[in-house]
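S1.2 Input.
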Amino acid sequence: MKATPVTVRQRLLEWFDGHRRALPWRQTTDPYRLWVAETLAQQTQAARAATYYLRFMAHFPTVADLAAADLDTVLKLWEGLGYYQRARRLHRAAQEICTLRQGQLPATFAEWRTLPGVGDYTAAAVASMAFGEPVAAIDGNVRRVLARFCATDIGDDPARQAAVVQAAAQALVGGARPGDVNQALMELGATVCRPRTPQCATCPLAADCMAQRYKLTAHYPLRPPRRIRPTRMFACLLVTWQGRHLVVRRHQTGLLGGLWEFPTFPCREGELPAETAASGRHRLGLPPGPSTPGPVLAHNFTHFRQILHVFLATVETPGAATDAEVRWVTPDELDALPLTRLARRLAQSVGTKPAGVETAPG
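S1.3 Output.
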């Protein structure tokens, strides 16, 4: 950095003190609340995360409350936020804190890193904000701010970018108020040093920002080439029996783990969706009968695009399709379950009750 870390730190803190948003977790240094907030805020806009944070704190005011909760309750409160693995790991980590640590939350970066789902960023954020540990918390906003600020030290080398950003961030938290320095960098990236329309005229670091000086803000941070997202076909069964709908729970591990959905089956290569639906019906132990083609829905996951062909059917008997992970539910019971985004959209499209909240990708 051209300016010294002390000078940059002072500018950041002065700016943060006058421009910070009134986010609910900025009113506390409680490590549990900060941990929940930082987990919720990952890959989520702060204003949206704030709504979920207040809801979580109302239901789980302590780590013991979260640990004692049923996973379905946690997932239901998380519904619409996306990236559900975060919710499962947050719940599991709370249980580990209560069983293995007697309810005592970690106090250092190294201790936080031992918990399920707590990576470098979350561990650094909580350790610096709650305990004043001088460790840099680097998220996408911080990476963008410092990559632009240090652009001439990075050049066109993505590997060097990571090292330069880490070193710059660590130098900045090496003095007073490390937690606030981390938050100031995040806030600057979220509100001023934005990806497409940076507000350089109002940035406290503009005078020494190399990307601003050489008109390279659009070039940084360096990004890997974008991958082509493949399309995958699925067949989904919306089956009705005596006013109830058949739903299944996804495996606890993997994509959307632990959420409920209408029975969904991937189409094999060369297989028509109607053939997949008929095979899935047999696998569920449902009685044979006709199915009517319904809506076709699409959804973008991080690594692929899903096309869902829906087939509607009514059965006179439930068949063998009942166990702990397979249920016949009323519209009210369906509304109470943590559903996948597509399940909720499908329920709306065919007039089933769930309205729910607007949801996020993945």
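S1.4 Remarks. The chain has 16 helices and seven strands.
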